[in-house]
Amino acid sequence: MFNNERNNTMNEPFKLDVYFMIKYYAKKHSKTITRRAKWDENCRTWVSKKGDNCLCYYDVDAPTTNKYRTAVNYEVLA
Fold it and tell me: Strands (DSSP E) along the chain, which ranges?
């Protein structure tokens, strides 16, 4: 179900339509979150002003209409 054809470094974007798992600590919920994600043309990575690695991803299982989420200091799971 998940496509493991991804770049090994997060400095480079995934290929389009790649599915992956992402894990990060969400301050808003005060817990670690693991999600099924998809990389598409609206996703991106960047470094925040605080120096944190950030990733905007498409949440595959989100029940809302806006399925884009931002993970800070994330880990991509194989």
Answer: 18-26, 31-39, 44-47, 53-59, 68-72, 75-77
> What is the 8-class DSSP label of residue 48?
-
Of 59, 53, 58, which is closest to residue 75 (Cα–Cα)?
53
> Tokens for 59?
């949440």
**Whole-number average pLDDT of the chain:** 85
Contact 60, 19 (CB under 8 A): yes
pLDDT tens-digit profile of 10-40? 445 688 899 999 999 999 999 999 999 999 9
What is the spatial distance between Cα 44 and Cα 32, in angstroms, rounded to a whole number? 21
Residue 57 has pLDDT above 50, yes or no: yes
